[in-house]
Design brief:
460 residues; 8-stranded parallel beta barrel; TIM Barrel; 3-stranded antiparallel beta sheet; binds 2-acetamido-2-deoxy-beta-D-glucopyranose; 15 strands; 13 helices; hydrolase; alpha/beta; single chain
Length: 460
Amino acid sequence: MRSAALVSVLATVVGLGTAKPTATVPEPPSKRASMPTVTVSGNAFWQGDKRFYIRGIDYQPGGSSAMADPLADTTVCKRDIAEFKKLGVNTIRVYTVDNSANHDECMKELADAGIYVVIDANNPLYSLNRLDPAPSYNTKYLQSIFATIDEFVKYDNTLAFFSGNEVINENVKSTRAARYVKAVTRDMRSYIKSRGYRAVPVGYSAADVAQNRMQLAHYMNCGTEDERSDFFAFNDYSWCNSNFKESGWDQKVKNFTGYGIAIFLSEYGCTTNGRDFDEIAALMSEEMTSVYSGGLMYEYSLEDNGFGIVKIPDSKSSTVKEEKEFSKLAKALKKNPAPEGDGGFTSTTASVACPTKDSNWLVDSTLLPAIPEGAKKFMKDGAGSGPGLKGDGSQNAGEGTSTGDATPGSGKVTGVPSSGSGGGGDGDGDGEENVGNVDKAPFVLTGLVAALTLVGTLVL
Ligand SMILES: *[C@@H]1O[C@H](CO)[C@@H](O)[C@H](O)[C@H]1NC(C)=O
């Protein structure tokens, strides 16, 4: 009953009709994994059948512009994982990764520490151009994005992928880029399915802009199944050592109640008025858990913007200096453990209606750009080697762009081969050979039966 009432609140707010909810079933836990994989179902994340809350920290020593992947440098990651353990975080977010590097060792160290990773698939070189998105949505760009998926999907502790970070900002013209961000989200989800990979959740990390917050959120969860995100996240700096009401978080719970997919804060941690991190108490409380699944404190390393909680003397340094906020964060996390039970989540997931165009939201079509013709082959053949953090980047590739709008539903992966008779495999020796080319219905069924059998066996 509550959810029906709340959906109508939402409907009034944005003037939309109620959507038919789709029941979702949590995937069985993967007991073979070095760490149980996290799945998304209803409006929540799950570790097996246990509700999972992100209790994390944003991690990019040197900042994004340094273009250095901390998970590709064992000295760096080991140094910082020791600190993550002291903090008691269960998740980190990394903004810039090198898809041509090896991540085995750092990902294993993280898994051993019980830490999941959320990966931004973009980086400053391979990303969308917010004010001129059409040319930047191209084959070269998608190749890099997909190569990042290939690199990280194999780790059980990869929690999610971001399809973009703050592409849309306070410049109203940037709202036109939303169609492209959403197309990328569709393509990433479709790539994961086409390649027969584990269903790692994909969603967008939004800037917290009052004028477009709700439109953007609704936009990312409207339309056909293939066009919807698995979750939505935003960066929020409105809790400045205040409380649930003063920060406006009460409104952010109200407005997102009945939203229909999982939601979390991809950045939080206002620095005005000092920092006691009392917002963690709110995030882990009943006031929020029915809508939110935790968040990531911004950020680990102290950079020019002053948000970090450790000082790193130089990039190769083997030790760091903890700032006074370090122990405050550790304390707040310890004092506010993840709640037991299901947190009042909603077991169904529902799409909402797309927002309409107005002076703050310039998107005038619900149609998304079609995947660039040249990128379709990746679905079947894989992306191949990633470009890493080198080269000219993709924004000005000047070719391989989209040539029209997609038919809604075109990103759906049915398991029927899109073309050709297959064979040959992707040749990367990862055991995924032919998966993209076979009818997946029996494959999925066999996998499920096998997984259930395995769980059954292990439980005994
Ligand atoms: C909540 O939604 C209303 C109506 O769309 C909007 O005016 C308000 O700014 C929103 N508040 C927050 C905190 O998102």
